[in-house]
TrEMBL record, chain A:
This is U6 snRNA-associated Sm-like protein LSm1. The gene is Lsm1. The keyword Ribosomal protein does not apply. Interacts with SLBP; interaction with SLBP occurs when histone mRNA is being rapidly degraded during the S phase. LSm subunits form a heteromer with a donut shape. It is found in: Cytoplasm; Cytoplasm, P-body. GO terms for biological process: deadenylation-dependent decapping of nuclear-transcribed mRNA; mRNA processing; RNA splicing.
UniProtKB/TrEMBL annotation, chain B:
The lineage of its organism: Eukaryota, Metazoa, Chordata, Craniata, Vertebrata. The keyword RNA-binding applies. PANTHER family: PROTEIN PAT1 HOMOLOG 2, TOPOISOMERASE II-ASSOCIATED PROTEIN PAT1. GO terms for cellular component: nucleus; P-body. Residues 301-315 have a biased composition (Low complexity). It comes from Hemiprocne comata. GO terms for molecular function: RNA binding. GO terms for biological process: deadenylation-dependent decapping of nuclear-transcribed mRNA; P-body assembly. It is found in: Cytoplasm; Nucleus. It comes from the Eukaryota. Transmembrane segments: none annotated. Residues 95-121, 298-325 are annotated as: Disordered. This is PATL2 protein. Residues 95-118 have a biased composition (Acidic residues). Keywords: Cytoplasm, Nucleus, RNA-binding.
Length: 133, 683
């Protein structure tokens, strides 16, 4: 129950397990221990979860202090439903390898695309080199 | 019946209660595996399954011994505090002290359970290895959670309210239990709360939370009998909500609502308890969840609340279907004070006038108000006040005095900089600015500004003078002269050599355009003597000034006032000035004179001087010349003529004003041919 209707606050989320999506694309899962007015977060027992396809791997990270502006979204994890997922957990090495492969294929396809566009006289700026705002 | 129950003011009663509490706590711990505060006793007592009541008794005895240290302390405090008024306050203090002791006991054990985080292990989310709790062992306990009941309020971990649990050891309830409950029942004597239960429920912690000791994070219920339970167990999560009672609280301090009944014997529960033990919530559990008809054993209540306290401030609360046996030892990192603070900041943010900042909040209330207005119109009811968040009123500082100066003090007063750090920074800046800023130019500019302001004042005075009465005139005049003198002194006009020119303050002023403007406006106010001195200085440093003026070309500003000055000069003075212009320069073969011819201001000034000199000569006024004046004059004229003829026409600058008597001047001294030559040049 929100004691401050019309507002949103992370106070209620303290000490609960959260999934945090960062602007750089990382997914962190940890217990939200502390916040401040900028929504800077202190995550405890944090795990960085890498998803590739149907697989995922967790990298334990310890304590995270996340600057509020870097958070895209976050949500509480239902501890009961947490394990109820079609995704398959794999080891870190495996998931990193998968990720690398995924990046590689993406890069290659991107390269082909850019090449094709160039041949047709078009140039599409790469999204990651654009200004963020 | 209620009146029969004593107000807990009697020490013996309290003592009894204290003992009782200890026993109960032990019991609770054994039942629910509460480990935080009682770890010291862990080693002494084995975990006793509920069914073994005799052992329980044994352990109770043990615990009582262990707690003896607390007991006397409690008694003492009780005794001391007896005299103080306000039972609640006493109790709180005792409670907090007790709590401290508890915490001391408990703190060393906090770290026991955590194993070092092994990074090699991907499964980071370890189960916290607390003592195997009864819940994990007893499925009945697991099943019978009333957790969901509290879910609405985001409550902390729910206690098991399994009738089985308690049913199995009726004998453990100490005989004095009744007394304790009497005290608790006092809560029910309070005036009934207002209609909106949930809101009032929140409002009570307002007073509670802020009246009590700030250290009191986990109020020890053992001695705080007059307090209502819901207050306490909601304190944790709602404590900070006390800043924002959803409804402007009408309940008075110290009058907690009676949100639920202490089900005690034949008493029928009030409908309020429905709020807490909602049937809807029980749907989640397959338990005979306490509906509004359920009567909770008073001990159950206590256990509940105690559980609340010991669970720490901010244990993770979620409507759990199955009981998670892991007690989170890291919970409560963020204290309620800190949470309060964050909420406070957030609410202050809501106070902004800017629609962009708190759009959702504003919209929400607009809509709410609209809706209520509509309802009001339709229903014809009395005007309903939309419950508004009571945000802490922060008085915005209207004026920010960056530098605080108290009359008569020396410099900046040491204003508290903890809450306004900006002052300290600004003060330093202020001080720096007042000092020599290191850069000559900056200093010069600063000075110009200062003097300009003074000049403006002088001019103001000048303007006002005619308006002043006859008697005031001399006074005004006097004042004005003083001001002018002030400015003149500030100019620091002094003789300086060529090497020092760049450093000379007065000359620096003249290098700046505004400085020239300043001088131009000031000159009319100065005395002739002062003005002449300035002219002399300018003439002396003319090459320097002309060089510096190459960019601005603002020297001509000075021409007009200087011209006036020249017009009032004596012949000797003119000679003097001209001498400045004809003196040879150390680093240049060129005479200042020659340079002047190439400069508009220079040539204008020269012509002005010559013209005046000529005028003086040709007039009948007695000249009073000094010795050698005439010779100098003649020499100068010749020199001028020579330079004029030598200077190529292209470089010769047209003066601002060509005096008419120059040619006649030249005629007197020079031959016709030269004169004609010059004439051509000068046109």
């Amino acid at each position: 129950m929100n004691y401050m209707p019309g507002t949103a606050s992370l106070i209620q989320d303290i000490d609960k397990k959260h999934l945090v999506l960062l602007r750089d694309g990382r997914t962190l899962i940890g217990y939200l221990r502390s916040i401040d007015q900028f929504a800077n977060l202190v995550l405890h027992q944090t795990v960085e979860r890498i998803h590739v396809g149907k697989k995922y791997g967790d990298i334990p990270r310890g304590i995270f202090v996340v600057r509020g502006e870097n958070v895209v979204l976050l949500g509480e994890i239902d501890l009961e439903k947490e394990s109820d997922t079609p995704l398959q957990q794999v080891s870190i090495e495996e998931i990193l390898e998968e990720q690398r492969v995924e990046q590689q294929t993406k890069q290659e396809s991107e390269k082909l695309k850019v090449q094709a566009l160039k041949e047709r006289g078009l140039s599409v700026p790469r999204a990651d080199t654009l200004d963020e705002y | 019946i209620l009146e029969d129950y004593l107000l807990v003011e009697d020490a013996p009663l309290l003592e009894e209660m204290a003992e009782e509490d200890e026993e109960l706590d032990l019991y609770n711990e054994m039942t629910f595996g509460l480990d935080r505060d009682y770890t010291e006793e862990d080693s002494t007592k084995p975990l006793v399954p509920l069914e073994m009541s005799p052992e329980l008794v044994e352990v109770v005895a043990e615990e009582t011994e262990a707690r003896e240290e607390l007991g006397p302390g409690v008694a003492e405090e009780l005794g001391e505090l007896q005299e103080e008024g306000g039972m609640e306050l006493e109790v709180e203090q005792i409670g907090s002290e007790l709590e401290e002791e508890e915490e001391e006991l408990g703190t060393e054990d906090q770290e026991e359970d955590q194993e070092p985080n092994d990074l090699g292990d991907p499964a980071v989310m370890r189960a916290v290895q607390s003592k195997p709790t009864l819940e994990s062992q007893d499925s009945a306990v697991l099943d019978s959670r009333i957790g969901a009941c509290w879910a609405e309020f985001g409550e902390e971990d729910m206690l098991a309210m399994d009738p089985l649990v308690w049913g199995s050891c009726p004998g453990s309830i100490p005989p004095h239990h009744a007394l304790e409950d009497k005290a608790i029942l006092q809560v029910l004597e309070r005036p009934p709360p207002s209609t909106n239960m949930a809101l009032d429920f929140l409002s009570s912690p307002v007073q509670r939370g802020y009246r009590g000791s700030p250290r009191l994070k986990r109020p020890n219920l053992r001695l705080m009998s007059p307090k209502s339970f819901p207050q306490h167990f909601l304190r944790q999560t709602a404590g900070y909500a006390s800043l924002a009672p959803f409804r402007p609280t009408s309940s008075t301090i110290g009058s907690p609502p009676r949100p639920f009944t202490m089900h005690f014997g034949p008493m029928s529960p009030s409908s309020d308890s429905a709020v807490f033990f909602s049937p809807s919530a029980s749907g989640q559990l397959n338990l005979s969840a306490p509906s509004h008809m359920t009567q909770l054993h008073p001990q159950h209540q206590r256990i509940l609340t105690q559980r609340q306290q010991q669970g720490g401030q901010a244990q993770s609360i979620s409507p759990k279907k199955s009981w998670s046996p892991k007690v989170d030892p890291y919970a409560g990192l963020m204290t309620s004070k800190e949470k309060d603070w964050v909420i406070k900041v957030e609410m202050i943010q809501l106070q902004s006038e800017n629609m962009d900042d708190d759009y959702y909040y504003q919209m929400y209330y607009h809509r709410l108000e609209h809706k209520q207005a509509e309802e009001e119109l339709l229903g014809g009811r009395n005007k309903q006040e939309p419950p508004k968040l009571v945000t802490p009123f922060i008085q915005k500082v209207e004026m920010y005095n960056s530098v605080v100066r108290i009359a008569g003090s020396l410099g900046q007063v040491a204003v508290s900089t903890c809450y306004s750090p900006r002052r300290a920074i600004d003060a330093v800046h202020h001080a720096l600015v007042e000092e020599a800023t290191g850069s000559h130019r900056l200093r010069a500019l600063h000075k110009i500004e200062k003097l300009f302001l003074q000049l403006l004042e002088v001019e103001e005075m000048q303007r006002k003078m005619p308006l002043a009465s006859e008697e005031q005139q001399p006074g005004c005049q006097e004042q004005k002269s003083q001001e002018v003198e002030c400015i003149y002194q500030a100019l620091k006009i002094r003789a300086c050599s060529t090497e020092e020119e760049a450093e000379d303050e007065f000359l620096q002023l003249l290098c700046v355009q505004k400085g020239k403007k300043l001088m131009a406006r000031l000159l009319p106010h100065l005395t002739q003597e002062q003005a002449e001195k300035i002219l002399l200085t300018i003439a002396h440093h003319l090459p320097f000034l002309m060089k510096k003026d190459a960019l601005d070309e603002s020297l001509p500003l000075l021409y007009s006032p200087l011209n006036q000055v020249v017009g009032g000069m004596t012949f000797s003075k003119v000679i003097k000035v001209l001498q400045e212009m004809t003196r040879p320069l150390p680093e240049s073969p060129e005479l200042p004179l020659a340079m002047a011819l190439k400069n508009q201001f220079g040539i204008s000034l020269l012509y002005s001087l010559l013209s005046h000199g000529e005028g003086l000569l040709s007039s009948d006024t007695p000249l009073e010349p000094c010795s050698g004046d005439f010779e100098t004059w003649t020499d100068t004229v010749f020199l001028v003529a020579r330079e004029l003829s030598q200077v190529p026409k292209a470089l010769l600058v047209e003066p601002l004003f060509l005096p008419s008597n120059l040619l006649s001047l030249f005629c007197r001294y020079l031959d016709k041919q030269t004169v004609h030559h010059l004439e051509v040049k000068m046109e």
